[in-house]
Design brief:
Layout lengths: L3 H14 L7 H25 L17 H6 L3 H10 L6 H12 L8 H10 L7 H12 L5 H13 L9 H12 L1 H7 L5 H12 L12
Helix pairs in contact: 1-2, 6-7, 8-9
C-alpha cells in the first residue's frame, strides 16, 4: 500500500480533481508528503481496528461457503477456539453433532441469518439449541461500529432534557422500537397488527378512558 506507485496514482488523481490549479515542483513534493502521511494514518487505523480479527476465525464454523469442506474435514481447531473464547456458553459435544448434521445437509447450506430464520420458522430452536446460539452470536457481532453509533444517537433523541424523568422501562421499550424499525415496518404490514397492539395496550391495566368498546 505504501509504495511509490500508489503514491503517484493518488497524487495524480488529486491533481486531476483540482485541474484548475497550477502545481509547481514544490507543490507536488508537498502533496506526496501529505499523501504518505494520510496513508500512514490509514494503515495504523486498519492495524488497530483489525488487530483482533484473527480471534473471529472461529466464526468460520458458520460460513456456508466452507460447509462442503467441513463435511469431509471437521474444523476442530475452530471449535476449540470457540471453547476458549466462550467457555460457559456452549455444550461443545452437542454443538459438534449439530454442526456435523448441518454440514451433511446440502439443503441447509445457509448464511447464519438464513439458518437462524430457518430454525425459527420450523420450530427447531430447541432441537438445534447450540447451533441456534452460535448463529445468534455471529449475528450479534457488528461489522462496523456505525450501527452502535446510530443507536446512541437515537437514545439522545428519545431521552431529551424535557423527557428527563422517563423511567428505564419506557426508555428501553422506545429504544427497541427505534432500533428495530425495519422489523416494526414489516409487522405493520399485517392489517391486524395495529388492532392487536391497541387491544394489548388496553388490557394491560385500567385506563382513565375506555379503550375497549362492546358492540351490542
Amino acid at each position: 500500500m505504501r509504495k511509490e506507485e500508489t503514491i503517484s496514482i493518488c497524487c495524480k488523481s488529486a491533481m486531476e480533481l483540482n485541474s484548475e490549479l497550477q502545481y509547481s515542483e514544490k507543490n507536488i513534493i508537498d502533496l506526496k508528503i501529505l499523501t504518505y502521511e494520510i496513508l500512514d494514518s490509514i494503515i495504523v487505523q486498519i492495524e488497530v481496528r483489525f488487530k483482533d480479527f484473527i480471534n473471529l476465525k472461529l466464526f468460520e464454523l458458520t460460513n456456508n461457503m466452507s460447509f462442503k469442506d467441513y463435511k469431509n474435514n471437521f474444523s476442530m481447531d475452530k471449535l476449540m477456539e470457540l471453547k476458549n473464547h466462550f467457555p460457559d456458553i456452549f455444550n461443545l459435544e452437542r454443538l459438534q453433532n449439530e454442526l456435523e448434521i448441518l454440514y451433511n445437509s446440502p439443503d441447509k447450506y445457509l448464511t447464519p441469518k438464513d439458518l437462524f430464520n430457518y430454525l425459527y420458522k420450523n420450530n427447531l430452536l430447541d432441537v438445534y439449541q447450540e447451533l441456534s446460539k452460535l448463529s445468534q452470536l455471529v449475528l450479534c457481532i457488528p461489522v462496523t461500529t456505525s450501527s452502535s453509533e446510530r443507536n446512541m444517537s437515537a437514545l439522545k433523541r428519545i431521552k431529551t432534557f424535557l423527557r428527563n424523568s422517563m423511567n428505564d422501562d419506557r426508555l428501553s421499550n422506545l429504544s427497541s422500537l427505534t432500533f428495530e424499525k425495519q422489523m416494526l415496518n414489516e409487522l405493520s404490514t399485517d392489517p391486524t397488527f395495529i388492532d392487536e397492539v391497541i387491544d394489548l395496550f388496553a388490557k394491560t391495566k385500567n385506563r382513565k378512558i375506555d379503550l375497549i368498546y362492546k358492540i351490542i
